[in-house]
Fold this sequence. Notes:
The complex is a heterodimer. Chain A is mostly helical. Chain A is built from 19 helices and three strands. In chain B, helix 4 (95-117) crosses helix 5. The model of chain B has no long low-confidence stretch (mean pLDDT 82).
Amino acid sequence: MSSPEHVLSRAEALRRALPSDFRDAIAQTLYAEASRIARRAVHTRGQRGRDLDQWIDQIVTGPVTGLLVMLVLLAVVVWLTVSGANVLSEALANLLFGLGDLGRSLFEQVGAPWWLTGFVWDGVYLGLAWVVSVMFPPMAIFFPVFTILEDLGYLPRVAFNLDWLFKRAGAHGKQALTMTMGLGCNAAGVVATRIIDSPRERLIAILTNNFVPCNGRFPTLIMLATVFVAAGFSGPATALIAASAVVAVVLIGVGFTLLMSWLLSRTLLRGEASAFTLELPPYRRPNILRILYTSLIDRTIFVLLRAMSTAAPAGAVIWVLGNIPFGESSLASAIAQALDGFGRLFGLDGTIILAYIIAIPANEIVVPTMMMIYTGAGRMIEAPEGAEAIRALLVGQHGWTLLTAVNLMLFSLLHNPCATTIITIYKETRSRLWAAVSVVITLGTAFLVTFVTASLARLLGLFPSGG
Amino acid sequence: MEWLIPVVLLAGLLALALRSRLAASYRAWRAQQEREQVEDALKHLLNREHQGRHASPESLSGALGLSRAQTVRLIERMEAQGLLQSRAEQLHLTPAGERWALNVLRAHRLWERYLADEARMPLAQIHAEAHRREHTLSEAEVEALEANLGYPQQDPHGDPIPDRAGEMPSRASCPLTDWPTDEPGRIVHIEDEPAVAYQQIAAAGLKLGQTVRVLERTPQRLTISDGENEYRLAPAIAANVSVSPLLPTERVFDGDALPLSKLPLHREGEVVQIDPALQGLTRRRLLDLGLTVGATVRPEMQTFVGEPRAYRVRGTLIALRKEQADHILVRPIAHY
């Protein structure tokens, strides 16, 4: 009888005698056995499916047609998401804010002190309701559409087409997919990097995902583009100019993603591109039930829950800052005042900086927080209706210029990930360090870029009043 | 002024806590420094013994960059620990010292394997990085690393990795400069020190596992060939490359075999070899996807920049970059 020690030492001795390529031999016999079984059990009839696949592949991966298909699909997906979400968001907001009003009047009736009513309903609840009503609809539209493209087998072709770009940046072609996912939500984009199997390239994809603006940042970008960049135009040209400005911002984001990937693969994450293997599945009819499940449960609800857990405390903080009196105005205004000099260095102002600090849980509540501080309201409020009203408030009363708007768009694109994404990065990398690095490089880039544009504008003598 | 008392007390406590923490981390740092010094000394002695020479206090102080006095102190300390004996200006490893030295060597080579295969660090950088990391692991951690890597036998330079007991598999090899002309041999070792020589060899394109033969030798240079390309090296550099006779299982591929990346579109080929130098994650992925010896592959698509290309393997379409496809040797299948 042999003892465990005996077995172990015998294994150790035998291991030495193994040829170094025994793993290859194992894989080879497994495949030989599998193909033997397949030959006996599987009968193939005809080549029609494959011919169709090859025809589609020729179009989808062709140099001109491939690019065209990609851009058209991207535009359609973004348009569907933005326009569809507008309608849904409004309905959802009406419902949730109505509930909030109900709750508040209930509190008032039972005679709760004003600060309790305010804290619960204008703080915590409003933060939650706002995040849910603005975050849920675009994700509920974007993710199913994205998953359909994924299920069809189209998305791997995008990775195939664009891999040469990512290869030059030292990254993985599948990063194209995680970036597209980032358009829906950066936290979901970070989770999606699991499809990249080499750890170095995966980290690059995680750390740079935030340079793709998510749904939550689109309304801000669209509002700024419409009110400021397209201000001098009228009629249908306005929409076109605004849309181009938003597209330009997204392209700048893609540029920064590639640039930062390149920098990272030459500094922090040095190494050779490894193990690029990409399966191009045959085109398939999507499975609707599975799509709904993965896109709504795995992606939307998962992100939404995480966002809600950070939105509630943020709502509380925002309300407290907006309601504690300090001198003639609120504590929020006072802090914004104090930060003003710092903000102007980057062509922004103190209110914008403060809004980005306290609205860190979700990009969706940055503008409402800004509006709260600007108007001195005691709770987050929406931007005024119509471009003229917004201009009157921001330009007329708070000294905004085109530079402020452009730099805010850049800052919104490049700044640190929202709390939900930071938590997700921490969970995915299991490292505080990488979560911190993701904040440092994005925030650093945002401050650097806005500082450069603001200084350039100042040097050239543009916008003397603002900035 | 009574409120000052708790503040002062608190500050005092804080200072005390901080000091003991600082002292502890300083002690830990010192211990680590000492460990590195001892282990580097052990490695130097082992290295010398493998070369058939004995280490001396002079060679040790030169290798570690220590002053005479520091070297003497180090030798005394190691003698007291029973790691070495000094006799007549010669330093000898004791059995305990040799065991420890082999363990450091083992950690170093396992780290090199890890850095090359899993972290995919450029080969020219792994020696320095492994040198830093070899002192940080406990014996149990080294074992975990070995198991994780799948018990590799050699480091990426072809040096054998000692096992837990310190045994090293050996394989007869000889430097390229002494290898008979026209005899095929497999490169089994490329010396990674000095780095200048290693970089020249790497720049020439010679790799571990390559089958080569010496075509011509003059006092100025050696001309060698792998059947496809010719390489020229100065003898002093070529002496850092060791080759060994081919095993019966290692077939020589000539003429008709070519890298998968060069197989024309829509032309079928049979995989004959996956480059032995390609290890770790990348090799595992290729095997997982069914790219095993004997499999049939056909390039079916390429992007407009020429890569990646998509290959039909076992019924599925798989895209590979040129770097991966370069490592797969195929023989075109003739169609009648």
